[in-house]
Amino acid sequence: MAFIRYTASADTTIVNAYQLNLQTRGTGANAGMADVGEVFSIYGRVSSGSQELSRMLLKFPISQLSADRTNSVLPASGSVSYYLRMFNAPTSKTTPRDYSLVVAAVTKDWQEGVGLDLEGYKDLTKGNTGANWMSASNAQAWANVGGDYLLTGDYIYSQSFSDGLGNMELNVTPLIERWIAGDQTNYGVLIKLSSSYEASASMDYVNQDESVVYNKTGSTKSYYTKRFFARGSQYFFKRPLLEARWDSTTSDDRSNFYFSSSRAPAADNLNTIYFYNMIRGRLANLPGVGTGEIFVSLYSGSLANTVPSGSKLSLYDGNTNLTGGWVSTGIYSCSVGIVSSAVSPLYDVWHSGAGGTGDTEYYTGSILPKLFDLGSTSGHPRYVINITNLQDSYSSKETARFNLFIRDKNWSPTIYTVAKSTVQSLPIPSASYKVYRLMDGYQAVAYGTGSDLHTALSYDVNGNYFDFNMKSLEPNYIYAFKFVFYDEQTKSWQEQAESFKFRVEKSEP
After folding, report:
1. Domain end: 367, 397, 412, which one?
2. pTM above threshold 0.85
3. Beta-sheet strands, E only, within 34-188
4. Domain count, the chain
5. pLDDT value for 314
6. In this structure, are 319 and 393 located in the same domain?
7. Could you tell me the residue range of the domain that residue 436 belongs to?
8. 459 shares a domain with 310
9. What letter would DSSP give residue 419?
10. Which own/partner contact pairs does 381-389 have at CB distance under 8 Å and 24+ positions apart?
11. pLDDT of 291-334, one tens digit each?
């Protein structure tokens, strides 16, 4: 699993807009229970130079992120990115065009409240629980009307929109890491139009009406109304969320190991192999090694004699011992290269020390290396895919591992390959999955083919695989996986034909 979604824990809309009578401002209004939130700016509707604004407040459960970091559910800082995601809510009102929204860290605690009215702004807090334009809570006013927030460095982010229908997706990683580390208290964020798009207001106007935000360089054009779904929305996939993404892939080249070649770039002459230290069905660090270095040597052998023989082979750097390292609990890796003059199969021996008499040998594996193609081209590959362990249904609280079997569609087995007890799956080095809802085709999880690779597939000696947390999907619906593979010849992602259906069942509390 390489992404986790955290739904907002509180949200509301606050306004200084006029109520329907165009005489009284709705500054005491709260919309904490509304199923949408809105951001807008109206200039000159009531009088020349009048200002009406709407902003959203949003908070996420950072304590849960901290707990997940402590329990190694989330990777360490620097290895994970956090995206604020908000989803457009359709409206019959006019929507703005060509504007920018700002997301800024709030500096004072606030209350969500129970208001609903986003038309007449009649759900007034009147000293009851809930934030509004003038107050963060029923006990404390904002220092600045419209909310207290920071507008510098790691505390402010922005996204431009060409129209009023777009979703928001902002990388807010530095702010989230500050919250997790405790460098800044988590009071959530405020979402507003950037200052140049919020309505202009002079100091004279502010002196006449304390609810107005001074904005000398603001806009004399209205931007009305951008709406996002709120956390109370009936639509599971439209609620505001913080999405943690990281690359958790393991690329184990044991079954995709190539001899070094003078025709290949240096990076392609190295193969990464892994050692998984399984003890009583679980991964455990090696005593005496822990998270430190481990050494790997290669030996020749034969298919008939499945043990190493002879002396250590000279490797790509002229040494007989390579230094490997710790990846995660019980998993170690090493980059290995060797010229084609070596005998096949090869045996990799993982051991302590650099070859002394007191070395401890931990594990011996086997490798059947391949030769790089000799100048021929294979055209555009086509594949047959199957998820070998796919079930009909899964619990909404379950994290499942999916194993893929992949072979070339034009594969022609020989008598030897037919006689073998198992056919080896073809590993795809660059592959990604998506999830869509079968009923309407809604894309619940998009392909992660960008820099975050949050839906990339791992591979090892048994083929490609990935983990998926069913909590990301709304229960009681049927979904399907689809896959894309990266084609090195065309330098593009190619979607595969097969789809794999499954149902998510709601788990009892």
Report:
1. 367
2. yes
3. 36-43, 51-59, 81-86, 99-105, 156-161, 168-171
4. 3
5. 86
6. no
7. 383-505
8. no
9. H
10. 381/408, 381/487, 382/408, 382/409, 382/410, 383/407, 383/408, 383/409, 383/426, 383/428, 383/485, 383/496, 384/408, 384/409, 384/411, 384/498, 385/483, 385/496, 385/498, 386/498, 387/481, 387/500
11. 999 999 999 877 666 778 788 888 877 888 999 999 999 999 99
